Amino acid sequence: MTPETLIALFEARATALPPESSQMLVRHLQCKESLAVSRAIAEASDRYAGNDSQLLTTPAELLTPLA
C-alpha cells in the first residue's frame, strides 16, 4: 500500500458518517431531557440505596442445584 493510498483511505474514513447506532447514541447523550432523567435516576439511587453494605440473600428458587 502506497502512502498516497493510505492517506486517501484515512481521509475517506474521516469524512464518512458514523454508523446509525453511534449517531443515535450521540443524539441521546446531547439531549437535555435524557441527561436530566439519567441525573435524576442516579441521584435517586444514591439517596435510596443507602450506605450499608448488607447484602440481600438470594432466594433458593433462583439458585442452581449443586452437582
Name the helix and strand elements from N-terminus to C-terminus, one letter apiece.
Answer: HHH
Counting copies of identical and different chains, the oligomeric state is single chain
Average pLDDT rating: 83
Contiguous uncertain segments of 5+ residues: none
Describe the main β-sheet briefly: none
Query: Helix amount, in percent?
Result: 55-70%
Number of DSSP strand runs = 0
From the helix content, strand content and strand pairing, which structural class follows? mainly alpha
Radius of gyration, CA atoms, in whole angstroms: 24 Å
The count of helical stretches stands at: 3
Report, as a whole number of angstroms, the end-to-end distance: 57 Å
Beta-strand content estimate: under 5%
Overall spatial form? elongated
Report on the structure:
The chain is mainly alpha-helical and 67 residues long. It has a domain of 25 residues. It contains three helices and no strands. The protein is elongated, with a radius of gyration of 24 Å. The N and C termini lie far apart (57 Å).
Protein traits:
3 helices, 67 residues, 0% strand, mainly alpha
Compact description:
The protein is mainly alpha-helical and 67 residues long. 63% of the residues lie in helices and 0% in strands.
